[in-house]
């Protein structure tokens, strides 16, 4: 059921993008000036075996669309696939981030499918004509690293079933050839994965452990076990 809903949402977004070309809808249109930066942010170092979360960010700062003149670009919808190495990490969940327009529940690749293929995709859209603009955190993804070393998360990987897409928002009175596609750039995100921490004993703890072992030895002697 969840897979069907995810595929339905992707289909809706494709249909949404088709309206851009057909000219049957009204919204913020071309030309779009500028390029959105799609990035991941998260911890620089994580511990193997423990979950960690990265934010999916889309920065529209300085980007404009056309609606009776130049207007700030509004993100109306997106498909963002994120790739990871199977066996090096596993995907566990997605959640809404700081954007009020892109909230839970997000349409996300089912966990089993994502971990089998090494790609998790998130998809969402909304009907707000004026927000969000600027730098937008659209979602949070949680993974677990399997072992130490460098772990690379790749935006828009070649293995994705559907490539990364960004769309401008519907805005009444704008050109009928809109909304339209927003161009983008992507940057891979690298995380350093360390081994699990091995606890070390302070001097006081070491003395206490030595005393406990000595007492246990005396107790065993007293019971005639040596």
Walkthrough of the structure:
By secondary structure, the protein is α+β, with helices and mostly antiparallel strands. 21% of the residues lie in helices and 38% in strands. It is built from three helices and 15 strands. The strands form three sheets. Strands 3, 7, 9, 10, 12, 13 and 15 form a seven-stranded mixed beta sheet that branches. Strands 8-11-4-2-14 form a five-stranded mixed beta sheet. The chain has a three-stranded antiparallel beta sheet with strand order 1-5-6, with no helix packed on it. It is elongated. It starts with a helix and ends with a helix.
Per-chain topology:
Layout (H helix, E strand, L loop, with lengths): L1 H21 L6 E5 L2 E6 L3 E3 L3 E9 L4 E3 L3 E3 L2 E9 L5 E8 L10 E2 L2 H7 L1 E7 L9 E11 L3 E7 L9 E4 L15 E3 L2 E6 L8 H20 L4
Salient structural properties:
21% helix; elongated; 5-stranded mixed beta sheet; 15 strands; alpha+beta; 226 residues; disordered N terminus; 7-stranded mixed beta sheet
Summarize the structure.
This protein is 21% helix and 38% strand.
Strand residue percentage: 35-45%
The sequence of SSEs as H and E is HEEEEEEEEEHEEEEEEH
Q: What is the percent of helical residues? A: 10-25%
Mean pLDDT: 82
What does the radius of gyration come to? 25 Å
Question: Could you give a short account of the major beta sheet?
Answer: 7 strands, mixed
- Low-pLDDT stretches are 1-6, 10-26, 218-222
List how many beta strands DSSP finds.
15
Amino-to-carboxy terminus distance: 65 Å
Q: Which structural category do the helix and sheet elements fall into?
A: alpha+beta
SS summary, helix count? 3
What oligomeric state do these chains adopt?
A: single chain
Shape: elongated
